């Protein structure tokens, strides 16, 4: 009996997650409402909270999937170019980040729209996903700067990720002015190559 | 008579702008409501729309003031160090941007929270304010790269601004993890000095 209930709960969990992910991909975070989600899943609003703590938990779980897809795309882009120099690898990853954000704008924005404070209990799997993404950047940096202490490599990794994120964010939002994709790629390359000269 | 009406309209305009600015500084964009603004100004909701097209226009006008304050802070920081090298100047400006954003977080966030599309008629004074800010960055870059075409300097200016913005944004939101201010300053300096080596 208990096993049957567990199976049913897990099925509902996956179903809600699939629906929430589709909603966020289509309409972003503002489109996600518990009532609509319940209707689509054919369950009561209360049933949602038997498998997720609150709506934020569902968003966090879909963000986990988005992070995985992003990490996979970034890793694949680098693996496709096995002879790339460390500096080239950084540029390849930066460009892959831009491409992912442009192709998955709403899901990508939701990664950063979710209220997340350090007071909040961020799940371990989420931090692991983030650490994996940052590991991809730290690898080539470590090759470029073999003598730098780990702490500097960590800060540099974070600086590069944040810089590329800023260029992609303001560029896709056309915040300063409209800008063609090729110019955004050039900007990313400028900054990354600037940092990749020891 | 006409002059008296003009004066009254202008007074209401300034009053609404002062109130909207105070609201945004205190509570950010979500705190700004036409009804509350009208109550505070002692006028009808309709009267607001005799001096502003819509609420977005008021936000744009307060953003103009924020931009002016930001530009003034950045310019002052550089002027205070007349012997700074071009690379130093970039670092001084990046640090001033961080400081302004940390001290005026809600008003600064509102600069980027306002929906603004290239389809929208962005006022000339707004674009002029932006151009002035970008001019501060382009100056030292031009000294560092005297032979680069203007187009490259423009892209580099935009790349540097967007990079610093990304580091400040993710840093202040503690998006990746909590980070001390000194580390944020180090990150900004790393990226800017990386770009400031011809």
Outline the fold blueprint.
The structure is a homodimer of 198-residue chains.
Chain A: H1 2-27, H2 34-41, H3 45-51, H4 55-79, H5 86-103, H6 105-113, H7 124-144, H8 150-172, H9 181-195
Helix pairs in contact in A: 1-2, 1-4, 1-6, 4-5, 4-6, 4-7, 5-6, 5-7, 5-8, 5-9, 7-8, 8-9
Can you describe what's shown?
The structure is a homodimer of 198-residue chains. With 198 residues, chain A is mainly alpha-helical. Chain A has two domains: 1-53, Arc Repressor Mutant, subunit A; 54-195, Orthogonal Bundle (Tetracycline Repressor, domain 2). Helices cover 77% and strands 0% of the residues of chain A. Chain A is built from nine helices and no strands. In chain A, helix 1 crosses helix 6, helix 7 crosses helix 8 and helix 8 (150-172) packs antiparallel against helix 9 (181-195). Chain A starts with a helix and ends with a helix. The A-B interface holds A 112, 116-118, 130, 134, 155-156, 158-167, 169-171, 173-179, 183, 186-188, 190-191, 194-195, 197 and B 112, 116-118, 130, 155-156, 158-167, 169-171, 173-179, 183, 186-188, 190-191, 194-195, 197.
């Amino acid at each position: 009996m208990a096993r049957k209930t567990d199976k049913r709960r897990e099925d509902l969990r996956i179903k809600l997650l699939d629906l929430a992910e589709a909603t966020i991909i289509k309409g972003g975070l503002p489109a996600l409402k518990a009532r609509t989600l319940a209707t689509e899943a054919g369950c009561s609003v209360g049933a949602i909270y038997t498998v997720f703590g609150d709506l934020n938990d569902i968003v966090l779980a879909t963000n986990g999937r988005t992070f995985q897809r992003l990490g996979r795309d970034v890793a694949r882009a680098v693996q496709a170019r096995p002879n790339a120099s460390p500096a080239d690898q950084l540029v390849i990853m930066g460009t892959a980040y831009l491409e992912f954000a442009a192709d998955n704008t709403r899901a990508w924005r939701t990664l950063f729209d979710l209220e997340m404070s350090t007071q909040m209990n961020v799940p371990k799997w989420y931090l692991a996903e983030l650490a994996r993404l940052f590991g991809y950047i730290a690898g080539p940096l470590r090759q470029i700067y073999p003598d730098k202490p780990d702490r500097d490599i960590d800060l540099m990794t974070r600086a590069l990720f944040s810089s590329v994120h800023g260029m992609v964010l303001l560029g896709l939002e056309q915040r300063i002015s409209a800008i063609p994709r090729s110019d955004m790629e050039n900007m990313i390359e400028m900054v990354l190559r600037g940092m990749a000269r020891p």
